[in-house]
Amino acid sequence: MDTRNLKARSFDLRKQVVDMIMEGGGGHIGGDMSVLDILLVLYKRVMNISAETKGNPDRDRFILSKGHAVEAYYAVLAECGFLDINEVIQNFSKFDSKYIGHPNNKLPGIEMNSGSLGHGLPVCVGMALAGKRDQAVYRVYTVMGDGELAEGSIWEAAMAASHYKLDNLCAVIDRNRLQISGCTEEVMGHEDLKSRFKSFGWHVIQVDGHDYEALETASHIAAKTKGKPTVIIADTIKGYGSSVIEKKVQWHHKLPNQEEYNQIIKDFKDRKESVLDE
Question: What is the mean predicted confidence (pLDDT) over 156-170?
């Protein structure tokens, strides 16, 4: 699928996410919309993993550290053949369902339960270090929210990754600048994230997190970078795709009413058509 059609397809996946949340009676709609393009590019254009190779020891590893954005993750996994999207939508967040509100490693394609923020990067450091010591060919990826960067475990992991020269590790930050309690810069300011990660010994790339070609190029540059881990700071818009939810902190986990739902779906349809008309 070329870039234009993949971008257009992302709005179909966004509708699936909203349908999932409506059916389950809750979810994290804002962060789902900001991270979905990142996940789609990683799974469709970058990582060496597929539904057919999910058990291959040489597969790339991925951890969604911001596990509360699981709805977007489920949609992308279904798009890649790991899950059945209709089953996910019908059973999401229901009693005794395996499609719970954070990643569940009982499902195909999910390496680890996540959602306790600040844990994804430390686990990936362990995976990447194991890969180095085993002389394995796989790479390790994680996607973090910018809100979770306030966790001390992130920076301990960042130091370790640099110390062990884990050039097989790539972290992506969904830099949407909003978290549950407000603007990230008011809750716990990150100042110049690019300089901060550089000071921890990382190779840093900053891109538009909704630009598919920029995300793909950055990931390929990361794979060629030797002697240090890479972090991609992906500047995104929380709630991306609909004027109803874009850049509004209350949509961190708000459930749409019917009128809002109708407008959100219309916005997705209009955005898809706009992409296809370009």
Answer: 98
